[in-house]
């Protein structure tokens, strides 16, 4: 089942989307919004699946599905937690800095609490005041959870995964350093994130989701040029249940929590830092990693961060090459007060 | 006007509360929940004030107001941002550690993004798995905001303050160190916070709120014994508009955002670290600060963190000694899976 929120008020209007992303059917009879459906998922999900089946069979009235009319699946959410599951990324950053990485980083996940009050739709621009802040994409796989108790077991954590989507976790790279030094996490350096048009239930993934990891190439493009295609199941030191267990060590999580696994990052086939796509590598999911690898290989970063007018595209195809979520397509724009 | 959310479903049921906190009237005709009222505040607020006036005049049906029946005013919120506005607190912690405090801390606020998906009602216990985690209270003044644009001016920031309340920002002190070292902020060390029964509009404060700071003693008690009574308008290096401007440097904030000013901390009259109440001082708003002052004065911390069975009370009275918000009264309990 695939779900989307058409732009409408603060929380959008829930629709069920066809597997091929061409059509959608109103889901208002089940729940007005995705959050409302998640609040009562065990009752809502079977009824939404009935609509999905009717939509595939052409037995329900529907409209063309247009990603440009979509808000984020959750336009505002009660929680956005983002882990750094691909420790390779962190190791590279440390290596470029000449800093030792604590051994605990391989067993204790990095995770931050992100702003969840305003999320961008898949085609909404990225508004930034100052290009000098170092505008970067971060392409990630994220899950939407049902209620999770404090001290969740691995089984409870896995069972809490209700939907999967992709995020562009926009990062202002030149503001992260001072915020990391303060230790209090990211407030100014992480503006509003954008999500794919569609959130998808785990059963749609077949063998590409084993209950803990999605394993498909995550495709990023900058200005139309392939930028990254790492395999999301590789080098994922902490899988989703592990990240959920980390988050629930001291507290419960409410239904509708979005939990991310961080920038996807693969080692090169030879075990070294990943190469750009044009050199036969899998590329990157953020410019910061490319700059880090350039620093390691060439002594200094070469690739600039994003400029106003640049375009970012993030998507994922199934093993048959069919788009799963629809694409995030965003322009970077100068923020001006309206 | 005073507002509360009686326990009912995930978001509570909005009521208007009498100034003297004895009675409340249903507000369902205006908005079912406080978040719904905040989503349309310019329309909802005048109608809620009409109910408040009718309640004071005895012209509307009402029920006794019982803080034990209250959820947090926002039982789940889209955002919880907490600044450290009382830099004196941070300076003391650094002094006890023998660490220099960066000069920038006096001009660039510390602020973290907290978990907002589950908040505790004013009489709900604090459930913790392990006493050894160092269970601490943090008594703070917080505001609830309307929508705030990115790059808000000081005037816009001040105008966004719709409601004021108190929080017990529960902190697991022995988990903060490792999380601060990781730089990603507080995920495990800040479990669910609890709020006062009632949120209050700024106009209720008269001279005690100047549009930027509340200036009244913040009263904390541990096991019934007075623990802190610092003056919230003193030593507040960053006032609320300054904190809001910090948060909106790179992004907008959605209506219903809760923004805190951090643990309230006053210097002693002689300019030194504050003394305990039993020594004639104003005491503290968290045990960590008392332990810090003990370290500075006596060479080591003496006061233990909270134990299972301990009781915390946080409240604030007006200049005439009348309670403004009702009290947070929480027992610390061992968390057991149900």
Automatic annotation (TrEMBL), chains A, B:
Task: Give residue ranges for domain Fumarylacetoacetase-like C-terminal.
Answer: 81-332
**Keyword Hydrolase among UniProt keywords:** yes
Q: Which domain of life is it from?
A: Bacteria
Residue ranges occupied by any Fumarylacetoacetase N-terminal domain in the UniProt entry: 1-76
Q: Which InterPro entries match?
A: FAA_hydro_N, Fumarylacetoacetase-like_C, Fumarylacetoacetase_C_sf
Q: Where are the transmembrane segments?
A: none
Magnesium in keyword set: no
This protein is called FAA hydrolase family protein
Give the originating organism: Pseudolabrys taiwanensis
């Amino acid at each position: 089942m695939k779900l989307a929120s058409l732009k409408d008020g603060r929380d959008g209007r829930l629709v069920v989307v066809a597997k091929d992303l061409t059509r959608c059917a109103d889901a208002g009879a089940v729940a007005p919004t995705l959050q409302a459906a998640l609040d009562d998922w065990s009752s809502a999900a079977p009824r939404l699946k009935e609509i999905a089946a009717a939509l595939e069979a052409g037995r329900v009235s529907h409209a063309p599905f247009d990603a440009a009319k979509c808000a984020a699946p959750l336009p505002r959410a009660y929680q956005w937690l983002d882990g750094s599951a691909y420790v390779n990324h962190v190791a590279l950053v440390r290596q470029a800095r000449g800093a030792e990485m604590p051994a605990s980083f391989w067993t204790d996940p990095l995770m931050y609490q992100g702003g969840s009050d305003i999320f961008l739709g898949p085609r909404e621009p990225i508004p930034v005041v100052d290009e000098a802040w170092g505008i970067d994409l971060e392409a990630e796989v994220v899950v939407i959870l049902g209620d999770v108790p404090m001290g969740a077991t691995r089984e409870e954590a896995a069972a809490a995964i209700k939907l999967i989507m992709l995020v562009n976790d926009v990062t202002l790279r030149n503001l992260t350093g001072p915020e990391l030094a303060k230790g209090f996490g990211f407030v100014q350096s992480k503006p509003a994130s954008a999500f794919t048009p569609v959130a998808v239930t785990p059963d749609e993934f077949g063998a590409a989701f084993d209950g803990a990891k999605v394993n498909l190439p995550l495709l990023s493009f900058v200005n139309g040029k392939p930028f990254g295609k790492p395999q999301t199941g590789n080098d994922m030191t902490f899988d989703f249940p592990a990240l959920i267990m980390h988050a629930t060590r001291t507290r419960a999580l409410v239904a509708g929590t979005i939990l991310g696994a961080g920038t996807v990052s693969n080692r090169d086939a030879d075990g070294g830092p990943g190469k750009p796509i044009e050199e036969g590598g899998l590329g990157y999911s953020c410019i910061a990693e490319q700059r880090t690898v350039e620093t390691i290989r060439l002594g200094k970063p070469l690739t600039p961060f994003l400029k106003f007018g640049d375009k970012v595209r993030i998507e994922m195809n199934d093993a048959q090459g069919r788009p799963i979520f629809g694409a995030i397509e965003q322009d970077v724009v100068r923020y001006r007060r309206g």
